[in-house]
Amino acid sequence: MILYNTLGGTKQEFVPHEAGKVKMYTCGPTVYHYAHIGNLRTYIMEDVLEKYLRYAGYDVLRVMNITDVGHLSSDADTGEDKMLAGAKREHKTVMEIAQYYTDAFFSDASKLNIKKPDVIEPATQCIPEFIEMVETLIDKGYAYLAGGNVYFDTSKLDNYYVFGNMNEDELQVGVRDDVTEDENKRNKNDFVLWFTQSKFEDQALKWESPWGLGYPGWHIECSAISIKHAGEYLDIHCGGVDNAFPHHTNEIAQSEAYLGHKWCNYWFHVLHLLDKRGKMSKSKGGFLTVSLLEEKGYDPLAYRFFCLQSHYRKPLVFSFENLDNAVQAYNKLIARIAKLDANGEQPDLDAAKPYQDKFKEALDNDLNTSLAITALYDVFKGDLSDATKLYLIADFDRVLSLGLIEAAQTQKSQSAPAADLDVAKIDELIAKRTEARANKDWATADAIRDELKAMHVVIKDSKDGVSWEVEQ
Ligand code: AMP
Ligand code: ZN
Fold this sequence. Notes:
The protein is built from 16 helices and 16 strands.
């Protein structure tokens, strides 16, 4: 497989440390608010990468942290802890906020068919590991204490700007304009490994440490959690491109200083989802969530399809018009699959092979998901039996995870209802209910919904009209 590696800034052949095994780390969400669909673009593309590696035969270990402490409002260690700001906003405790938004994140991820990583570790569960790492960095001369905080000394490194293909201005994207330099720092890029109470009086979560009561910096979390679960050698580290600097740059600095050798070989960064205002961001507010899409009648998997249609290394512009186009294409695809009928036949595996090769070729080329979708459409063009087509679609969907077979089956069961269902009667009742709703006669509308329910028919209102399905 060829992957673009931000480290080096070129496409490179992917070779893991240990043959057949991949150790992968993903920066997890900062759980002070809902994940927006931009964050989820990153998690969708990382999910495809993980699933493709598995599809290609690798044994994958994927680790993800949950940032529930230490991520300040500026990536450059200034401002308030985002978690504390979230707790104040909602008049809850930090841990209540963390639990609520962690659950919300996994619920959204599951609606998008994003698999849970093998290891999920909240930062607050790893305080001893962070302290041990900071102590070692001090012992090795890479860290110093100033004004009560422990800082990493970037002047001790030969090359701090490891992602050399970006210029310094671009590298500052994650940082807010109103950053005031921390006077304790010896060098501009030094960053905090451990904060003590000297910094924020009202910090909610604090732990005892050799440097006083305090809490960890954001960057140390990912290094320590990755090393704890994936060991000293990591194959792929993933994240959104805004994480490349300073977060990932700092992770590399401290991990390699701690370990004394190269840590991670491949850096996989997903470009941003943009809206009219630029990068979709939690702190700017006004962002879109999976629940909002659902309220507007969109199937979350249609959003996944929208993401897969473009390459992860290009910014993706979100608009409802663009999403509507993806919805149409997705629905058409499902309708075409629903017309296929395997009739109990076996697939022809030899005939399927060239199609699988084309699919793999697309993903082997820097995870080109849009070409992989073209490979999926090719299945319909080919002279294949329906059984072989269905086999290939299910096979590709192990990676794409668009719920294709399930959605097609649901559609089939709707268009071919059980013999004892009186479809004419159902249509008549739905028409009557639509009329009642138009007249704002909610009582009649509700009564009809109940009557349908008694017939085990469930109706769903969406912006495209009313649909129904038989209750399972
Ligand atoms: P956060 O919850 O803010 O720590 O971010 C979670 C993940 O989403 C990180 O990998 C970010 O780099 C990524 N991310 C943030 N904003 C966007 C965006 N607009 N588009 C794509 N990924 C993003
Ligand atoms: Zn991280």
